[in-house]
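Form 7-S
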Amino acid sequence: MSQILLRFAPVMLCAGLIAGCTSADPRAVLNPGASNQQAPIDPVTGSEVVQGACPAVTLREGTAYYTSYAKGGDGDASKVIYQSSIADTTRQCRISGDQMTVTVVISGRVVTGPAAKSGEVNLPIRVAVLEGENVLYSELQTQPVAVTAGGPAAQFIFTNATVSFPASASASAKLYAGFDPGPYNTP
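Output:
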């Protein structure tokens, strides 16, 4: 009896997989019972959290690092006030009507240089959304960071929860974030 059962076990397994693949809900194949679950709801907006069409945050070349020099000391290592770098980025997307709103979060650190003074430095961070050559969103903000001259690296977390653009562009839009020393009135 056990030999007959062993012969039919692969056939039964394949039949089960085929039955799962023909389900109307593709989530049911990997997680039976998931078809009754709803998409996660953002507690702030009360809208569904969208992951599939949420554009990833990309750093353009040259925007992951920023060095600030004392006046007239550009390029002189002895005139470095601080150096900052982006360590990680993430985002969360929500659709409300015909608009997609993205919360962009950037983490990084600031290291003081030989010309540093203890206090607060302001990091220039831009978040932009482009669809081809069209700028859908662009904002340059400053992130204050308290630093100690000669002290350990200071960490920062930057959040921009107001990135908004047409939801119809979410599949083709590019989301960029990084340091941008300005000017502040450019897209």
